[in-house]
Amino acid sequence: MILLSGDPGVGKSTLVLQMxxxxxxxxxxxxxxTGEESLDQVAMRGCRxxxxxxxxxxxxxxxxxxxxxxxxxxxxxxxxVDSIQTLEDPDHDSAPGSVVQVRECAGALVRFAKxxxxxxxxxxxxxxxxxxAGPRTLEHLVDTVLSLEGERSGTFRLLRALKNRxxxxxxxxxxxxxxxxxxxxxxxxAMFLADRLPDVAGSTVFPALEGVxxxxxxxxxxxxxxxxxxxRRVAIGYDAKRLSLLIGVLTQRGLCKLVEDDVFVxxxxxxxxxxxxxxxxxxLALLSSKSLRPVDHRTLAVGEVGLAGExxxxxxxxxxxxxxxxxxxxxxxxxxxxxxxxxxxxxxEVADLPEAIRVAGSPAAA
Length: 366
What we know:
Elements: E1 2-6, H1 12-25, E2 30-34, H2 39-48, E3 58-60, H3 64-74, E4 78-82, H4 99-116, E5 119-124, H5 137-141, E6 144-149, E7 156-164, E8 172-178, E9 181-184, H6 188-192, E10 203-210, E11 213-225, E12 233-236, H7 240-252, E13 261-267, H8 279-291, E14 299-301, E15 304-305, E16 311-312, H9 317-326, E17 331-335, E18 346-350, H10 353-360
Parallel strand pairs: 1-5, 1-6, 2-3, 2-4, 4-5, 12-13, 14-17, 17-18
Antiparallel strand pairs: 6-7, 7-8, 8-9, 10-11, 11-13, 15-16
Helix pairs in contact: 8-10
């Protein structure tokens, strides 16, 4: 049982269609059940993606008994249900998408998968908070939870494994969405940094870890004088609460006064940074924007920032440096005690924010 979640329009249906085409090309039978789209709409998407219609077995239904009956008759190797929130079990009076319907329909599909040996892929919506809609027990019922992330207006997509009973969760796939569907990216770091302008104030490179895969991301910050009673704090691709915390640390420690400024932060490329390891890079970007002094474009920074202004150690420093070395970076600002080394990168260990600021050459503004 596999649960694929993501925001509306991020590409979940496109991804499963491409998956179905690859599985059928390998000689295995599949069945796609859609409760949100008509068969004509599915066929149109299949034609756009270049999928042969004669190989695609699909049905449009939201009735759980009808879906199970069709699945038993065809006995597919993979059954895809798009989406679990549209299914309805007539034995229960609640509306489709309710807690009861989602839980009971998912439970019936789990029993089908266990008794027949078929793999079942459920597509699930997410709430405004980014969690899978429906009861939390839905995630406990399935064997694997995958999350497809990305901005609908952007081209990049990130596929993460949040749970996997039979394997590792330390993998992530990076894709580009184009007219032919989702295409795998072999070198995401080079792609994310391709449009970066050198020596621009407010820009710092952060080596993120997506599972075990290092990806270099440009963290951008813009600090501008505000004429509002309450200055704006806007974070795109970064936790807004974490941004407020770091602004408080910079202000309280006397490193940078941002109380009367609007602060805008973004992770270039549309990715979402979820690691606290990006704290140091973000602080340097904020200080750089405020002082209008750029951080050297061949320097990257990684480390978690505590409330006392200390820079804390984070995992995977060596893997991050190896990726940075491949792309030609020459300096890395890391937490003290990181025990990382590189033949081509000068590794500078710092204990706190003031030391990191001196090393980066971006002094705090008055």
